[in-house]
Structure formats: structure tokens, C-alpha cells
Prior knowledge:
30% strand; 5-stranded antiparallel beta sheet; 2 helices; 170 residues; alpha+beta
Amino acid sequence: MSQRIGEDREKHLEFPAPHRLGEGVAAVLEGTTIVMDVRLEGLHDGILVSAEVETTADGECVRCLDQVTIPVEVEFQELFAYSPTEELEFSVHDNHVDCEQLVRDAVVLELPFQPLCDEDCLGLDPETGDKLMEPRSNDLPYIDPRWAALEALASDDTTTASKPAAKKRK
């Protein structure tokens, strides 16, 4: 884009993700299609880039571990300066702007930290490991076998607590 103030261009781009975006439970995998609608506006001091990015991330539900596909939609706007200065991170090179870092940062920041297959996901049954389809019955409280020794101590405390305390001698 030339350095003409007021000139603008719009571009529609579709390209594969060059590498994995994100390192958490959800990420945009390498090769996943990224769709980007970009508007480039010539300003006095640079090119203003406004973009809408759409893609999908793959991951697993943090409650039940089912695979999930998460739509990702994000917008960003950044000014690319005509003359690079130390305080501006982005600049115009040979009438081109490189938006790769902006796309990567915007998409990664939009990824969910703890993705769910459904907001009402009940997770896994602690006894069987199967996915819960309805809430567990609260008739008998589940006690983790690792705490069984403490359960025995707790029942000893209740018996000791019911005994009358011995009187102190003076």
C-alpha cells in the first residue's frame, strides 16, 4: 500500500495456521484454516490495520475430557508506522505490513483457559470414571478411600468427646 493519506483497501484472506497457536488445553492446530478480513487505511504517520479473525481451536473438556472444537473470533487494530522508531513495535517495510504476530497474539489470548464441552457438564464419576449424564445421588456421601484412615480417627474423636472430662486435682 502506498503512502497516500486516506487511501484504504480491504482484503479477505484464508490461510493455514503456520504452526500451533497456544500451549494450553485448547489450541489452534497447525494447518487449521484461519479466515481474516482486513482493512488497511493510509494515515499521515502509517497504515492502520483493522482485522477480524476467525478460526477453530481443538482441545478437551476440563471436566469430562471429551474432545471439543471451539470457534474463535477476535478483532484487532494496530498502527504500523512508516518510519520505524524504538517505541513502536510495528512498522511498514517496502509498503507491506506483517500481521503474523498480531494474529497469533490475538488468537492465543482469545483461547479459553478451561474449555468445556457444555456449560452444564457434570464431569466424571469419581468411582467409575464414566461421564456423568445426570447429577450423582446424594443418598450416600462418597468418601474417597484415601481418606478412610482419617474417617476412623474422626469416629474415635466423637467417642472421646462424648466421655466426661476428668476433674483436675488441685
